[in-house]
UniProtKB/TrEMBL annotation:
It comes from the Bacteria. Keywords: Calcium, Hydrolase, Metal-binding. It comes from Paenibacillus whitsoniae. The keyword Hydrolase applies. The keyword DNA damage does not apply. This is Sulfatase.
Amino acid sequence: MKEFSAKKPNVVFIITDDHRGEAIGAFGREAVQTPVLDALAAGGTACRNTHIIGGLTGALCAPSRACVQTGIPIFRATVGKDMVTRENLNVIRPDVRIMPQAMQEAGYRTHAVGKWHNDKASFTRGFQGGDKLLFGGMSDHTQVPVYDYDPTGAYPKEQEYVEHTFSTELFTNAAINFIAGYGQDEPFFLYVAYTAPHDPRTAPEPYASMYDRASLPLPPNFAPEHAFDNGELMIRDEKLAGWPREESEIRIHMGDYYAMISHMDAQIGRIVEVLKAKGIYDDTLIVYTADHGLAVGQHGLMGKQNLYEHSVHIPLIFHGPGVPKGKQEEALASNIDIFPTVAGLCAVDLPEETEGRSLCPLFAGEREGARRIVGSAYRDIQRMVTDGRWKLIRYYRSPITNAGTERIQLFDLLNDPWETHDLSADPAHAGDIERLATELAAWMQATGDMLQEQPVLPVAPRV
C-alpha cells in the first residue's frame, strides 16, 4: 500500500448556504448563539475580511461554490458565459482540476455529503464516495431529495429518494457515519455541504424558540425599502417579506435565521465530538465557510442578490494543524483563496490554472503578497471593489431586463461598517471615487469580466 506522510492532516470542509460573515456569536456584531463555531475560531484562525467573487445568476450558490472548488474567478470557472441565456453557469469547466480532485491526486480519500449545486460530472471526478447527496439548490428541510453515491456519475432521477430527517441532522449523521467508520491508511477529505440556514427557515425545537422575536435588536441599516432600483428588487428572495418591510416581520425572519444557524452550530458540534472520540481531532483540519451571505431586512432587502457586506462578506475559519490559534486575520481575502489555503496547509500541489492566493503566508505573519483590493460582481447590474476601508459599488441599468439604475455608492467601512452613509455625492471624496473606479476597472479586466468594456463612472451622479 502507498505510504502517506504522517504530517498530512485529515480535512473536514464545511460549507453552508446563506450564512453571512458577521452572524457568528464570537464576532460580536449580532445576537446569534454559535458556541461551536466560537470555539473553532478561538482555537484557530478566523479570516474576518473574506468576500465572494459573485456570479451572473440570482442563484448565487452555484457560482460561489464553483469559485471555491476551482480557485478561479467565476468568469473563467464555468462553461457558461452568456448573461442573456444564463445557460451552463453552474457547470464547472471540465479542463479544471477542482479541490477534491487535487486532494485525491495527493493521496486523500475524498467523500462528500449534502449539497452539490454544480454539475454532476465535476462532482464525479472529485469524489470517490459520498452519501445523502443533494443535486440542486434547496428543498424543504424535512423533505430532502437525495441520492446515494453513484460511481458511474449518472445519478438518474429514478434513483433519487426523499429523506424526512431534518436536512442539517441528515447530513451530519452521514458525516459522522463516515468518520466513525473510516479505517483506511490514507488521510480523508470530507466535504460537508449544508443547505442551512437557507429558507424555508424552519429550525426544530428547542432552537425554533431560542430567540425572542419581539426583542431582537434590528441592525442599524434596517430600512423599509431599498433606496433605489438596484436591478433585482423583485427576485424570489425579495418576496419572502412584505413591502414596505415591517420591523416586527423582519424580527421574525431574523429569529428564524438565527435559529437555523444555532441548530446547525450544534450539529457541527456533533462532528467535532466524533473526531475527538476517534482520537483524530488534533490531526484534522476543519474549514468552515459559506457560499454567500444574506440581507434579512438590511438595506430594505431580504436576499443575497446585492453587493453590500451582508451579502458578499462570508465567514471563513481554519482550525487544526498548521493554523495559528486565537487569530483574527483582517487582511482582505476572496473565496478563490480558500482552495489554495487548504492545499497549502495539507502540502498539496495546486493546479496551474488556480488563480487564488494561499493565506498561509498571512498565518505566518508575512504581509507581503496580501490583497490590496477585492472585487465582486452580480449579473450585469452591479460591481464592487474595496480596499478594506473604502468601498465603491457601481450600478448599471441592465440591457437585458432594463431594470437597475446608473449610479454609484461610496462607503467608509471603517467608520460606517453597516453601510448607512453613501458618500458618493461629497466632493471631498472625488479622489477616493476615482482611485476605486480605476481599481474596479483593473479588477474587471483581470478577472475576465464581460462588462469590462463599459465605462465606470468617474464621479458621482446626482440622483
